Automatic annotation (TrEMBL):
Superkingdom assignment: Bacteria
Organism annotation: Kribbella rubisoli
Keyword Oxidoreductase: yes
KW Oxidoreductase (keyword) present: yes
GO MF, any single term: nucleotide binding
Residue span(s) of domain GFO/IDH/MocA-like oxidoreductase: 139-248
Protein name: Dehydrogenase
């Protein structure tokens, strides 16, 4: 494709956009944030000043139309992802969109189709997949270090005295499942693939927002996964994959760890893998590599996984009774 510098546009100026843009600065000079857009000019200007970004817009659409960028990073709440990503893909601008990319699998399938139609790269920012420690764990698994995996256990639950309001707002896709549960689900999916059977229970608040969810997955191979997420408890926030020969364990905040523990017949060994920054530059680097190769998909962030995880999220939400705007939308036209 012949791109020397990849010009990034940052859509939204909240928490995760700030972390992502900070990490973008850890990449070599060939990654440059050239524009930012916010719903307010003040926020866009403040963000632009903080990161030395030359162009700041008060409207996401203006950034997409500007010609200033090769790829946009979308850091809005989940319900806003779909329309912004669709507009950018239709304009031929590559998209790295926060997880979950959409509220429903139907919306995500539509985005993958639009990306293919416009020959434009599209990826979900499931940054866990590009973390070097996670990659080392799955290399061990593939090498048969613990034998055929039989059990995956993973939890993603935390509690803060004051949670960000979007997490409890149904109109903003609130709930533990979409924000946190997607990580243990993706972890189990990476280890075992798509389950044959899914059972879920959840406790919702009076607004229909899930506060505690437990999932059990069964595979035809005989393997199982036990996964939880929540917004009301300080969990260990750990994950493990176990087989007949041992286990691979990830510590607190398992989705962006600094080490893992490999336990086999020869004992338990802590494996440190060098990482730096918060870890968002790994996914940005993977996107840039794919863009330069002229690819429409980032190998580490595959469309198939995005879609199948959203199928599983749809199924889990249906079992526990969480509904979002868009659940009944007909996108066929
Ligand atoms: N990868 C990760 O580690 C990670 C971590 C946290 C969150 N996330 C994901 O990132 C997304 C955003 O999360 P966040 O924690 O960054 O949220 P946040 O701090 O609330 O920021 C979201 C930003 O989106 C924009 N926005 C657009 N429409 C909005 C609306 N109707 N209400 C509120 N804000 C709106 C706002 O930016 P402007 O005012 O500038 O337009 C806002 O600052 C979510 O999809 C979440 O799942 C990912």
């Amino acid at each position: 494709m012949g791109i020397d510098r990849v010009r990034w546009g940052i859509v939204a100026t909240g928490n995760i956009s700030t972390q992502f843009t900070h990490d973008l600065g850890l990449l070599p000079d060939d990654a440059v944030a050239t524009a930012v857009a916010s719903r307010s000019q003040d926020s866009a200007d403040r963000f632009a000043a903080e990161f030395g970004i030359p162009n700041a817009y008060d409207d996401y659409r203006k950034l997409i139309d500007s010609g200033d960028v090769d790829v946009i990073y979308i850091g809005t709440p989940h319900p806003q992802h779909y329309a912004i990503a669709r507009t950018a893909l239709q304009a031929g601008i590559a998209v790295l969109c926060e997880k979950p990319v959409t509220l429903t699998a139907k919306q995500a399938r539509d985005l993958v189709a639009v990306a293919a139609e416009h020959k434009t790269l599209f990826a979900e920012a499931m940054w866990m997949r590009t973390n070097p420690v996670i990659q080392a764990v799955f290399k061990d698994l593939a090498a048969g270090v613990i034998g055929e995996p039989q059990q995956v256990v993973a939890d993603f639950a935390f509690h803060k005295p004051s949670l960000p309001s979007r997490l409890l707002d149904p109109a903003l896709g609130g709930g533990s499942l979409m924000d946190g549960g997607i990580y243990p689900m993706t972890f189990a999916y990476m280890a075992l693939g798509r389950p044959a059977e899914v059972k879920a229970v959840g406790s919702l608040n009076e607004d229909g927002v899930d506060l505690n969810v437990a999932m059990a997955w069964r595979y035809d191979s005989g393997a199982v996964a036990a996964l939880t997420c929540g917004l009301r408890s300080q969990n260990p926030w750990v994950a493990s994959i176990s087989g007949p020969e041992g286990s691979l364990q990830l510590p607190h905040r398992f989705h962006h760890p600094e080490y893992y523990v490999r336990t086999t017949a020869s004992g338990a060994e802590r494996i440190d893998v060098p990482t730096h920054g918060r870890g968002y530059h790994y996914e940005a680097g993977a996107v840039m590599e794919a863009l330069r190769a002229g690819a429409l998909e980032v190998p580490a962030l595959p469309h198939a996984a995005t879609l199948e995880i959203l199928d599983l999220l749809d199924e889990t939400r249906s079992q526990i009774g969480v509904r979002y705007p868009g659940d009944d939308d007909d996108l066929s036209g």
